[in-house]
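Support request from a user on the community tier.

User writes: "When I paste my structure tokens into the form, the page sometimes reloads and wipes my input. The last time it worked, I copied everything first. Here is what I submitted, just in case something in the input itself triggers the reload:"
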């Protein structure tokens, strides 16, 4: 119950002009995310705040006056709001191996040629070409390294790799070694 009260204060203070119809579902969301604790070192709840709570329950003071009392408790450190850090949301990204990728021409580049993603992204390569390809990670000198290495991928096949560390990752296709691509992870 206290949690609802605190959160309703937070929302009302930031969303004063928003109608209640919108505030109520928003409150439900915030209640899930925010918890509070009582600071053991702080003063206990002052008598006037207790009276405010009583009077509010009896309909003798306005909601705003009651919420102001809750605000006072937070400002004085009697109530400590704890907002958990949000977990990073896993990201997905893809690289298309386009039709014509096997040809040694200026077109048919990987799409995108340099994929830029945040750490933790799972990258999926998709073979949209009419012939098989593979994906081989390589070092700066062009040698294959065992980091992300797909089997031969037929048309429509997919290959996934999750990048857990920042860096610039080069790769190529061992069937068509002129096809080089980059994944930049930051
Ligand atoms: Cu290839």
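"...and here is what came back when it finally went through:"
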């Amino acid at each position: 119950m206290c949690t609802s009260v605190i959160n309703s204060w937070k929302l009302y203070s930031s969303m004063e002009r928003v109608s209640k119809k919108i505030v109520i579902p928003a409150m439900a969301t915030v209640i899930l995310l925010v918890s509070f604790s009582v600071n053991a070192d702080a003063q206990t709840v002052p008598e006037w705040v207790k009276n405010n709570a009583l009077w509010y329950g009896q309909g003798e003071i306005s909601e705003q006056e009651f919420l102001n009392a809750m605000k006072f408790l937070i400002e004085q450190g009697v109530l400590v709001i704890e907002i958990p850090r949000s977990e990073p949301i896993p990201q997905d990204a893809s690289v298309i191996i386009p039709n014509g990728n096997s040809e040694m021409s200026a077109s048919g580049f990987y799409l995108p040629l340099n994929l830029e993603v945040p750490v933790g992204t799972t990258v999926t390569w998709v073979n949209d070409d009419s012939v098989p390809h593979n994906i081989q990670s390589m070092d700066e000198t062009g040698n294959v390294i065992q980091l992300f290495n797909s089997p031969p991928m037929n048309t429509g096949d997919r290959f996934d790799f999750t990048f857990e560390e920042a860096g610039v990752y080069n790769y190529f296709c061992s069937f068509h070694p002129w096809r080089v691509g980059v994944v930049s992870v930051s």
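Agent notes: The reload is a front-end session timeout and is unrelated to the input. Residues 102, 133, 173, 175-176, 179 surround copper (II) ion (CB under 6 Å). The two ends are 43 Å apart (CA to CA). Escalated to web team.
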